[in-house]
Structure formats: C-alpha cells, structure tokens
Amino acid sequence: MTMKKYLFTGLLVWFWSCENVEYQDCHGTVSGGAYFDECGDCVGGRTGLIECGEDCEGNLGGVAFINLCDICVGGETGIQVDSCESFDYHGYRYRTVIIGDQVWVKEDLNTINYRSGNTISVFQTTSDSVGTFSQNTISNGNEKNGVFYNWHVAISDSIAPDGWRVPNKEDFQELINGLGGEYLAGGKLKKSGFTAWDFPNNYATNESGFSAIGKGYRDQSGIFQEVGRKCSFWSLDTVQNDDTTTTNYFWVLKLSFDSNYTNVIPDSDDYGHLIRLIKN
Q: In what helix (H) or strand (E) does residue 94 lie, and over which residues does it extend?
C-alpha cells in the first residue's frame, strides 16, 4: 500500500512538472515565435532572419541575385557577380561593364543613325549644322578609328538606344572618384598597350574595363587632332557662360597618353568628341 502511494505521488509530480515547463522556440526564446523554415534554418521571432525563398535561378535558399545589368549572377549560376551583357544597336554589338554602381558601354558609340533609324547628316567643314557628325577612318582595322559627334547630336536625346543615355558631368565625376580620384583614374580607364595609344601610354592598366582608346578629337575645321595621344567624351551638361560670347561650353571627360590624370573640363561646342553611353 505504501509502494502504491509513492508511485501515485510520483506520477502527480511528473505530470505537474510537465504542465509547468515553459515552451522555448528554436532560438531558445521562451514563448518565442521562431521556427524552422524549409531550408532547415531557425527564422522569425527574435532571430532577425526571414524565411528562405528562391533566388533568381530558382534555388531554394540560394544566393544568386540580379546585378546592375539585370543578369542573374553568383550562387550556382557560374556567372561572375560583375558580369554584364552586350546589346545590338544599328547592326553593331556593344559590350558593357559594371564599374562601381554604374554600368557603362565599354566601347565608343559607333553609329551614323539616330535611334529612329534616320541618318545623321555628314559633317561639312563649311557648316556645322544641327545633326552633323564626322567619321575618322584612319585605316582599316586601326583601333583608333572612331565616329566623332558634335554637341547637337550629343544632347539630342535621340542618339542612344532605349535604356541608355549620354552621361552627365555627375556620372563622369562618380566614375573618376570611384577609381581613386582624378590623379589615379586615368590609367584605370585607358586600354593598355601601344595599339590603342601612342608610346608611352603611361599608367594604362584598364583596371576598370572602360577601355578608352586614344582617338583624339575633331577640331573646328573638321580635322582630327591628337590621334593616339588624347581622347575626349561628351557630357550632357553645359558650363554657365556670360552673355559676351555666343560659344557654348560643355563638360568633357579627357584622357591623355602620357598621364594618369583625368578630369572633366569645359570645352567649346566647336569641337567634335566621342560618345560613351551609360545605362539609365
């Protein structure tokens, strides 16, 4: 009888203890709301974690993501996170590159047509009228060949394909600052070697992938100057002028064969420069 009494008492104590054990979630929080998701991770509650989902490749809990070029990269894609795409525009395929938080075309615009398909009028030395351009054809296959546009074309808002545009001064400044500033960025923007630039092509590493080539510029008479030694790119932004001159000035990015220095400086609308597009 005594044995039965002790057994009964023990069962009551065990039952009472179980009833009073406080519930802990998977994070160890009493009465918490954390739980195990489909990936087997403890999420929610006080974990600070959210339930796993599918990445851009459809993998549950995967880490692939959409980069600045709208490409699914990383994770199990096998694609580098800084990979970019190419696009076709008026019969020419342009390659692109991510530099910092920007996406640039890694080659100069090379079209004689507006977005609509209408042909841009050829430059005449006697008249630099609206819509003109000039083409540099030094020799077949020469890397320094290029198409030079006047300011009317550069700011026309109809020269770039959908999703792209001519950069403004701020875009160029962000590019330069992201590459270490104006005293370091030049070499990182220039294509290396001596086919794209004349010797000595100082500091050229093309670390950024921008691949600038020394195509020179077009002067007021339509003559190509500083080929192999300089290159310059239009921006959309004008410089504030006084009323004593009819000449407009635009901010232009400039690079040189003998320097690591690059900056954005005013240049006259009389000149023809290259266009390098940036993604919207």
A: strand 92-99
